[in-house]
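Reviewer 2 asked us to include a model.

Predict the structure of this chain.
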Amino acid sequence: MMIYVYDGTWNGMMTLVHRTAREGALPDDILRFSPNGSSGVLLDSTEVRSDPSLAEATAAVLEERLGRRWMSEACLALMSEEKGIDLAVWRCLSRLWKEGARAAADLAAPCMGAVLHAARRSFRELHRWMGLIRFRDVGGVYYAPFAPDCDVLPLLAGHFRSRLPARWVLHDTGRGRAALHEAGRWFLTDAALPAHLRITREEEVCQALWQEFFRSTAVRERISAKRQSNFLPRKTWAYLIEKPGAASWGRSG
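Predicted model (structure tokens):
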């Protein structure tokens, strides 16, 4: 049984694709390293360490042949972290490389369907948090904690880089990672950060004004906890300043 283990990143997958193509290998399974960097696999497995330069070159060749659409779908699918998605992405890319348009049209194939389904899940999660991220002024730095279901932190960091020129920290509390931005550049770090930082007095005033606006514009007769949960899942409420579901909604002051 041929098992490959890698870091779960896009660069890691591209490195893995290059290696298996060079060796003519057909993986039976593809797993990710555990958080401490070990494979955690009892059976014999082959570890593949990410090589950024090799990954970039491999991605360029794949994109030229497969097109940008499928490369984007594969990248988003990996971010979903769904069980078995790593092998599905590898098989999807392999089929597209060998069969081209015929594979792209075969959406009933398990690997193709799995990639598209996982990519849609990541895409929805990305756009949900684009609208729900709340930065707070903690003294010279804007800080935003959140806990996405999918690993969309890198995409969100790129999104806010062009929209918020100030210094900021975007903290994925669930995965213990953060994107740090300054002067138009950002990078990822695994450094431990507190889930909550002390906000400035000016930030307290701004939050109070926003909460009052949010409360005062609500129509009491139309408040629906079910609809709130549909558009703003309860798991996101802890990271919102406006506090959906608060008892004071719709009441006059």
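The chain has a mean pLDDT of 89. The chain has ten helices and eight strands. We have added this to the supplementary material.
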